[in-house]
């Protein structure tokens, strides 16, 4: 199967219609929720730290006949990190020995992320600068640079096949792969399925995913196929289930076995609780290292709370943290430094800049 060709003008207009809010600060109904919180999600009493804390016991009133009595609800146990069932890394594994620092976006749009915001040489120099900052902040983890390219872009129009997404031209992916090689970086291919599925999208990417230095990202935000009547991407936040993550992981594991590759990395974006369902059913495989990436933007206090709510509280395997050059710095707020991010527990091993 081959990728359908996507013309530059089409993808550029697509980026303006769908993903602009994430990078430029427009406030669509879906992107308004990218500020990480929601009324239904209780704010935790503490932000993540390397020291485990115990939650105070909460009480609620319970009526028994005509009298009301108070009974204590047991404190919720703290998640265990590192995750107990994390497989022993195979030879060639990147995690946990290294930390990945990635630039995210699409080269045809300046508004979808830093990957396309600057001329190539300037972008790669900026990536090298961030790698140096992280190496200085944590000398115990060598840094693996990466480019993280959106190769399947959600859109508001259904397209000829009714899937509400457009696929990138293979020549464009090849071009970005060349940039990654120049920077001694690995490449992530990121998929926004719209009303398609991972089962339809991943086989089209196999010519690239079978390379040893190409990995995968999947974005529940634009996954609409669970909606009963269908929803246009960016009008509400989408969802992936553990079954979707397991399919992607199994697909990558099959490539590792078939082509004798080093382990793959699978990045799963998350900034709300409902974006990833049945997380306890996610199956771990030493051939695929799964990263749950905190993908929300906002001031540092909100980002730390979101990391605790949606990543720390639901352990899968490894963790990631996203930093936004524009949205995180609204109103003159300073973006979190590497040292500030390293105060999170667990320390993220995948860092993404948009």
Biggest sheet character: 8 strands, parallel, barrel
Query: Any idea what the CATH architecture is?
Result: Alpha-Beta Barrel
User: Which strand order does the major sheet show?
Assistant: 3-4-6-7-9-11-12-13
Number of helices: 10
Low-confidence stretches: 1-33, 35-70
Tell me the structural class.
Answer: alpha/beta
The CATH topology is: TIM Barrel
The overall pLDDT, averaged over residues, is 83
Residue share in helix: 25-40%
Shape: globular
Task: Assign the CATH class.
Answer: Alpha Beta
What is the CA-based Rg, rounded? 20 Å
The number of domains is 1
Order of helices and strands: HHEEEHHEEHEHHEEHEEEHEHE
Q: Report how far the terminal alpha carbons are from each other.
A: 30 Å
Q: What share of the residues does DSSP label as strand, in percent?
A: 15-25%
């Amino acid at each position: 199967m081959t990728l359908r060709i996507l013309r530059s003008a089409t993808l550029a207009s697509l980026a303006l219609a769908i993903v602009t809010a994430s990078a430029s600060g427009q406030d669509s109904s879906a992107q308004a929720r990218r500020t990480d919180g929601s009324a239904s999600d209780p704010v935790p009493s503490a932000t993540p730290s390397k020291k485990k804390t115990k939650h105070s016991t909460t009480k609620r009133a319970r009526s028994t006949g005509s009298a009301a009595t108070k009974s204590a609800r047991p404190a919720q146990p703290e998640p265990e990190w590192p995750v107990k069932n994390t497989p022993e890394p195979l030879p060639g594994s990147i995690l946990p020995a290294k930390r990945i620092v990635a630039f995210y976006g699409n080269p045809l749009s300046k508004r979808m992320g830093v990957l396309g915001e600057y001329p190539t040489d300037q972008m790669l120099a900026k990536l090298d600068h961030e790698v140096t900052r992280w190496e200085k902040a944590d000398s115990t983890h060598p840094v693996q640079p990466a480019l993280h390219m959106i190769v399947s872009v959600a859109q508001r129009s259904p397209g000829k096949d009714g899937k509400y997404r457009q696929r990138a031209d293979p020549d464009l992916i090849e071009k970005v792969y060349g940039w990654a090689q120049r920077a001694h970086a690995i490449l992530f291919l990121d998929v926004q399925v719209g009303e398609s599925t991972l089962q339809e999208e991943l086989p089209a990417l196999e010519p690239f995913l079978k390379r040893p230095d190409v990995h995968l990202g999947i974005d529940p935000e634009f996954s609409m196929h669970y909606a009963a009547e269908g929803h246009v991407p960016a009008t509400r936040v989408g969802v992936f289930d553990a079954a979707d993550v397991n399919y992607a992981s199994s697909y990558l594991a099959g490539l590792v076995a078939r082509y004798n590759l080093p382990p793959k990395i699978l990045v799963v974006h998350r900034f709300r609780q409902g974006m990833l369902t049945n997380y306890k059913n996610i199956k771990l495989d030493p051939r695929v290292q799964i990263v749950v990436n905190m993908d929300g933007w906002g001031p540092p206090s909100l980002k730390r709370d979101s990391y605790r709510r949606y990543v720390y509280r639901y352990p899968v395997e490894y963790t990631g943290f996203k930093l936004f050059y524009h949205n995180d710095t609204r109103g003159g707020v300073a973006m979190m430094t590497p040292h500030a991010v390293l105060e999170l527990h667990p320390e993220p091993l995948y860092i993404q800049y948009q």
